[in-house]
């Protein structure tokens, strides 16, 4: 059985480094000429999967936009997961689950056990009830060759208040989460199955106290030459680094270089609205996604072939 990390590594090599989010915002449904109901939702999601399922490495349906349509929306989500996988894409279900361990097992049954219609290749989880509380989902996912993405440094401006808080050892909460993930991925080749979420925006969202600057990180790959952040966290976790925040949230592809430095080869940028607003014409969706894949590739070449 191939692990999620192995499948993701192969898909990124074959299809390029991009995760496209399927976020059917009410405003996007309207812009696509669709009603804000389960029928409009299904048309939207099907269009994205048909346009991108055969070319993009990772598709990320955002569960909230399906759940808001009730049981019919969840039924559409089940179809999206199945159809995207049938088209050859890996599916990351963005549900950001996190609860006490016994409840976490139920989430594990729902999202990481292949007998469930909501089982995806990977899911997003929140470790803020303590990393150990994720154990049932970690164990179930790994047992079935699936994966997880653990929130570490999120892309929203409110994140630093929690994630950059420091313990008695002086380490940030996010740094401790990254340590747990690094330990869990130890020995996995070529890529571990437990990824982390680190926003492409974080140089804009770090608190002045935490970064020791006026609110903007001044770290640059040239300056740091390492896989670390200006706030001290080590990004070398042995797994993929999912980087949302490009486009609608204000970050650019070029920001990936500033934020991730030497860790850039492990980064999978996640882009939703910036690509989805080019729809519903499939060719335009494909072009927007391909341009982002090319821009990320060019950045890697610039960073690692030009020294
Ligand atoms: O830190 C995080 C974690 C997850 N997300 C999710 O990614 C997409 C971003 O959508 P855009 O339209 O590209 O802004 C969305 O589903 C978020 O829930 C994130 O943005 N930041």
Give an overview in words.
46% of the residues lie in helices and 13% in strands. It is globular and about 55 Å long. The chain is built from 15 helices and eight strands. It has one domain: TIM Barrel. Helix 6 links the parallel strand 3 (90-97) and strand 4. The structure holds ligand LLZGTKA7.
| Total discrete domains | 1
CATH evolutionary superfamily? Aldolase class I
What's the level 1 CATH class? Answer: Alpha Beta
Cα(first) to Cα(last) distance is 37 Å
Provide mean pLDDT, rounded: 93
Order of strands across the main sheet: 1-2-3-4-5-6-7-8
| Main beta-sheet annotation | 8 strands, parallel, barrel
User: Helices and strands: which structural class?
Assistant: alpha/beta
Q: Classify the beta-strand content into a percent band.
A: 5-15%
**CATH topology-level name:** TIM Barrel
Q: What is the chain-wise order of helices and strands?
A: HEHHEHHEHEHEHHEHHHEHEHH
